[in-house]
Amino acid sequence: MIKKLKESMIQEGFCDVRYQTFTLTSIKGSKDKIHTANVIKKSGGNVRVLTGGGFGTYCFTDLKDIDTAMVQAKKASDMIEGQKVLSKIEVNVANVKVDTPMDPRKISIKEKKQLIQHYMDLFLSVEGIVNLETDYYEQLLDTVIVNNQGTQVSQEELICGLSFRITSKKKDVSQITRLSFGGTESFESILDQDKAVLDKAKQTVDLLDAEPVKGGQYDVVLDAEVSGLFIHEAFGHLSESDNLIGNDALAQTMTIGKPFAVDTFNVIDDPTLKGFPGSYVYDHEGTKGKKTYLIKDGMLAGRLHGIESASLLDETPTGHARAKNFGFTPLVRMGNIYIDKGQHTMDEMIGSIDNGLYLFGSAGGQTSGDTFTFAVQGAYKIEHGQLTSMVRDVALTGHLFTTLNNIEMIGDTVGFSKAGGCGKGGQILIQSGKGSAPIKIKNMGIGGQ
Amino acid sequence: MNTLLNEALKVADACDVYVREVESTSVSMSKGVLKQIQTEKKTEVALRLVKDGLIGSAVATDIQDDSLIQRALISLENQGSQAGEFPSVKFKAVKASSKDVADLSLEEMVEEVQTVNDRIKAKAEDVQTSIGLTRTLKKVHLINSAGFEGHYDYSNYSLGMSTITDQGFHGASKSYSSGAIAEVMDHHIDDLILHHRLSDKKIQLDNEVMPVIFCRKSNGVFDVTCIGRSQW
After folding, report:
1. In 3D, which of A70, A140, A127, A63 has the Cα closest to residue A100?
2. Closest Cα to residue A304, out of A371, A245, A362?
3. Pairwise CA distance, residues A187 & A112, whole Å
């Protein structure tokens, strides 16, 4: 097939083709029953041609259409005024295969169902748990990328994970929490999780007796999961350089060297870390993924690039252009973004707060420009430097740059979320990781009663 | 399709085969400059099998995919879904496609995007825009082992226009999606500009309790995500 892809390539300007086979195994359950078990398999290609002022692209599912795809993509590119040239192309030739201690593809669906059913039964054995949504996913993306500059990369990307959405209820109060395992290519990380299941079930029930939080401004400590969500949603997307192209105002805001936070604050995106949702070797343009400092010593230090954004901004491609599958063109996406560790222990951060909150567990959120709103699974009050009672129904909201400036302390241990997932341009990418050290933020807006 | 149906019936009591051929073209413009033109031509296949009162399904992008029947059986054996009966009824055709959309050329799509941009700029020269137009055509075929055989054509014309704030973020937006070519109304452009002006003058509210009015869309989201999910 590689021969066919290479032969179809036009030599003028820039041209690449990405052929992918996407296989997704899903096992889903509601309450105590598994109701879905299926294997989806799709194959197809995506051609990009740049001979004019912008990319012409063509997606196809029948390899016989590849010559038409080249012609039509070139026609589309030529219709776009101008002549854009890509000057920052990293040429690679490689073949990357999955190499994992416990390959989920070698475990039968029957065995997977037994394990999942066991966890479901365990959750529902806890009094007060009234509903459970369960989702096991196992995705293999088998990719070939060829371009007319000499790149020829074959790569397997495998990820599996198990997520639960747990609901407890007592009288008129209900609470929802989430728990995830995996987010990596090994099935091993999904095994032996009985304690985590029972702890989460207990926490979900305990939240029913918690008081609703009183809205206001608080000094807060965010756990690694909430901090990871904050840095991904509120800052990470602004670091995706395709958002800056033709957007002078945002480019001005994101000027390299600009101070954003205290000088102990560092934000990194690193797809080369092994074993997280956003780990990979090559991106979907065939560029090697690179560890990239986004904020270093409190100042904006870099951004994430694909070939086009790197060429236009005259910066190094970082290998962050990825697509959900062949049906989509690559966009600049985060790999594993995280706030790096600082110097403070959790006790020091909690101990520094007289009246505040410790927020745990992300529960989704959204950003609008430079403002954000996130829900969390719950919180503990901090009173006179001590964790006291649990509170529920907590959301945090704020302005990104003010919040970054209000970060006062950074914890000494980094934790990563086991659940990937990020949406952009109509593409939900499960291979996107986020993590953080816990952080203390002063004067955070908390929504509640 | 009949070959797949007959192959499937060797291992199943009943089955249906659904094939969808999709052609789609998208044109996007930002700040008056054409940015990208995307085309797709894909085939999507779905097979459903019934055996011993259970149903299973699988999808593929190639009707000759060797694994399709096997994957449908995996689904049937593992998810335990009870099957109904595939119908064989006469149906009345419902028009779901527009010749105007089908005949729309790439050049005409580019011209339409430019025209919408020009109309907004004529009313508010300082407002920066982002415009996207997508034309989608589908041919859908369905056959089943009960004797049903049908097909229909589908078209969709989807146009989105949004403004870009001084800070470089998306401001106001308006979108159209229909089977026929949608007409961009003058008063929609006026509303877009009005909401853009309002969104460009955002103020930061303190965290406080106050009466609010939900717009229809927000109310819908509230109903689905808050009230709907609480009905366990």
Report:
1. A140
2. A245
3. 10
Confidence of residue B232 (pLDDT cuts 50, 70, 90): very low
ipTM of the complex: 0.88
Is the pLDDT reported for residue B199 higher than 90?
no
Q: Do A253 and B39 touch (CB under 8 A)?
A: no
For residue B179, give how far its alpha carbon lies from the nearest alpha carbon of chain A (Å).
Answer: 21
Interface of B with A in 194-213 (CB under 8 A): 204, 206-209
Does A247 contact B at CB distance below 8 Å?
yes
Nearest chain B Cα distance for residue A13, angstroms: 16
Classify strands A433-436 and A336-339 as parallel, antiparallel or unpaired.
parallel
- Asked if residues A288 and A319 have their Cβ atoms less than 8 Å apart, the reply is yes
With beta carbons less than 8 A apart as the criterion, state whether A404 and A250 touch.
no
List the one residue out of A331, A350, A293 whose CA is nearest residue A426: A331
Condensed to tens digits (0 to 9), the pLDDT of residues A318-329 reads 999 999 999 999
With 0-12 / 13-18 / 19 or more C-beta atoms within 10 angstroms meaning exposed / middle / buried, residue B39 is buried
Rounded distance between C-alpha atoms, residue A279 and residue A158, angstroms: 10
Written as one string, the DSSP assignment of A193-231 is -HHHHHHHHHHHHHGGGSEEPPPEEEEEEE-HHHHHHHI
**Which amino acid would we find at residue A25?**
T
pLDDT in tens, B4-57: 999 999 999 999 999 999 999 999 999 999 999 999 999 999 999 999 999 999
For residue A29, the one-letter residue type is G
Q: Is A135 helix (H, G, I), strand (E, B) or coil?
A: strand
Q: Cα dist. A256→A294, A299, A300 in Å?
A: 9, 8, 5
Separation in Å, CA B207 to CA A227, A372, A447: 21, 13, 7
Q: Identify which of A335, A333, A322, A312 has the alpha carbon closest to the alpha carbon of residue A88.
A: A312
**CA pair distance B38, B31, nearest whole angstrom:** 18
- DSSP 8-state class, residue A271: T
Cβ distance of B165 and A56 shorter than 8 Å: no
Pick the residue of B71, B79, B166 with the most A CBs within 10 A to test the interface with A by mutation.
B79
pLDDT of residue B225: 61
Non-local (6+) Cβ contacts of A192 within 8 A are none
- Containing H/E element for A189? none
Distance CA A430, CA B3 (A): 36
Residue type at position A397: T
Residues 6+ apart with CB under 8 A from B105: none
Cα separation, A392 vs A171, whole angstroms: 16
Residue of A nearest to B48 (CA): A38
